[in-house]
Amino acid sequence: MSPTSTRPTRTRQPAGTRSEAARPTDTRPADAASAGARSTAPRNTAARPGGVRRHTAVFALITTAALALTACGTGDPATTPAGAAGAKKGAVPTADVVSAVTKDEAAAALLPADVRQRGTVSVASSTGSLPGAAYLPDGRTLVGGDVDLTDAVAKVLGLRLTREVVSWEAILPALGSGKYDFGTGNFGVTEERRRTIDFVTYINDGQGFAARADSPLKKVTDLTQLCGLNVATGGGTTFEATLERNKARCSAAGKKPYTIQSFSDQGAQWMSLQQGRSDVLMSTVNGLRYAVTQQENVRFLNEYRRLDVGFAFKKGTPLAPAFQAAVNRLKKDGTYDRILRKWGLTDSSIAESRISPPEIPAPTK
After folding, report:
1. CA dihedral in degrees (28, 34, 38, 39; nearest 10)?
2. What is the pLDDT of residues 69-90, one digit of tens each?
3. Closest to 312 measured CA to CA, from 167, 164, 196
4. CB of 76 within 8 A of CB of 280?
């Protein structure tokens, strides 16, 4: 989940970030500094000889090559969910599951009058990896589950989206400043975030683990199983916060604490794992399940906990009821299920959209 931040003011550049010239007119890179973001440098630089730039470049080349195979290969990726067993590595689903969506007058009537009048809504989107959101090899087209769901909600509400690609850590602060109407980036609903952010839930993701194929780890049910290991994760995320919060349990058990290797880039995390500098990787359940189908020599271990994920808004937003009604309309007409099937996210389906529900309790060990 995405990465899911407890300190959203640190800036990281997602894998595959491109210059302004390479993006479409509605996908403009934002100035992270204006959102109060900080340096992109990961804290554990000793864990990453050569620095994140080299690893990101290598990973980007691997990812680009894999995606390029989709355009040149045979078969119909539209019929095979992303990350599904038997799916070709690098195959990106192409089924159109959004264009047939029509406006729902009842849901649209819940929008504030000024929003209905202008007919547009601005969204800050984080990109980096599927099944959430990523660029196709053309460097212009955004695809992914977050993209399809956001586009579908806008169509239900009769709104035109103005999408801007923003560094993940900069999104939540930017919402507070009123720079964007809402944000997407696999933001998990936590009690800390609920103090300053409103959520409209649309999937249920979670925290999980992946390791190399030769790892002795089978399933991580207790974080003390990580004692003495190097654990890669995203900087400023709920994964990092979970690891920090439980780190002392190793010492209490008479074991060497695990080392938290915090990265500002998803590609660098996987590179560290592949090269043996990290023993295990903690990230989103959906992201891990997808990523292991696209790489060699890695495997998904297990889920650790679940979190609701939602569109993020400034606290007190008047937009939440309309967005909730739009998600529930998509549930009712089958579009929601078609989007989740396309991206291999059916295990993350929710029964109904809710506004800022309580955080799902964390495991006790």
Report:
1. 50
2. 222 222 333 444 565 444 456 6
3. 196
4. no
Only one residue has tokens 């087209």, namely 141
Helix 266-274 to helix 51-72 angle, to the nearest 10 degrees? 90
Contact 230, 258 (CB under 8 A): yes
CB 277 within 8 A of CB 54: no
- Tell me which amino acid residue 225 is: Q
Structure confidence by residue, pLDDT tens digits, 1-17: 444 433 333 333 333 33
Name every residue whose Cβ is closer than 8 Å to that of residue 248 and which is 6 or more positions away in sequence: 257
Q: Tell me the one-letter amino acid at 273.
A: L
How far, in Å, CA of 347 to CA of 208, rounded? 14
Q: Which residue has the tokens 């067993």?
A: 85
Length of the chain: 365
Using a 10 angstrom Cβ sphere, with 0-12 exposed, 13-18 middle and 19 or more buried, the burial of residue 186 is buried
Which residue's entry shows tokens 């990290």? Answer: 278
